Amino acid sequence: MSGTTERTTMEYFEQCTNLFRTLGDPARQQIILLLGKHGPMNVKSITEHSHLSRPAISHHLKLLKQAEIVTIRQQGTEKYYALDAGSAMRLMKDLIAAFEKECPPEAAGGEQGEGLPCEGGAAAER
Questions:
Q1: Are 121 and 102 in contact (CB under 8 A)?
Q2: Tell me: the pLDDT tens digits for 55-102?
Q3: Is the pLDDT of residue 16 over 80?
Q4: Closest Cα partner for 95 from 84, 106, 85, 87?
Q5: For residues 66 and 69, what is the distance between their CA atoms, to the nearest angstrom?
Q6: Highest-scoring range by mean pLDDT, 7-11, 26-30, 109-113
Q7: Residues 6+ apart with CB under 8 A from 72
Q8: Which of 52, 65, 81, 106 is least enclosed, having the fewest CB within 10 Å?
Q9: Rounded distance, CA 58 to CA 20, Å?
Q10: CB atoms near residue 104 (< 10 Å)
């Protein structure tokens, strides 16, 4: 494949790096699942469902906000956090689509198990 496809796939990998780091933490995974199950919650409510302290929950929520996985809505003196993972999901789907285009499952050992080199990625340069 062309260098353009490789560059695009690499750009998706680069864009997803922070997202993957954010999603890789079990505490943040728990918070994501809580928000998905219960809807918007404040720090106190999240803390009641977790073994973590309020400051730790706040730290994880800050990272989830930076990764654009949660949104914040101010209601009076309380901040309510809601799951809003649509852009993160689209980014991951775009990465998967670009990766599959560059390295179809049969070329990457997925369906046939042969592990043939991809067309234009680092594996083809070996």
A1: yes
A2: 999 999 999 999 999 999 999 999 999 999 999 999 999 999 988 888
A3: yes
A4: 87
A5: 8
A6: 26-30
A7: 65, 79, 80, 81, 82
A8: 106
A9: 19
A10: 14
Per the CB < 8 A criterion, the answer to whether 117 and 107 are in contact is yes
Place of tokens 């599959």: 100
Q: Is 16 left (phi over 0), alpha (psi -120 to 50) or beta?
A: alpha
**In the chain, what percentage of residues exceed pLDDT 90?**
64
Q: What is the pTM of this model?
A: 0.75
- Residues sharing a CB contact under 8 Å with residue 41, sequence separation 6 or more, in sequence order: 34, 35, 80, 81
What string of H, E and C letters represents the secondary structure of the chain? Answer: CCHHHHHHHHHHHHHHHHHHHHHCCHHHHHHHHHHHHHCCECHHHHHHCCCCCHHHHHHHHHHHHHCCCEEEEEECCEEEEEECCHHHHHHHHHHHHHHHHHCCCCCCCCCCCCCCCCCCCHHHHC
Please say whether the beta carbons of 37 and 82 come within 8 A: no
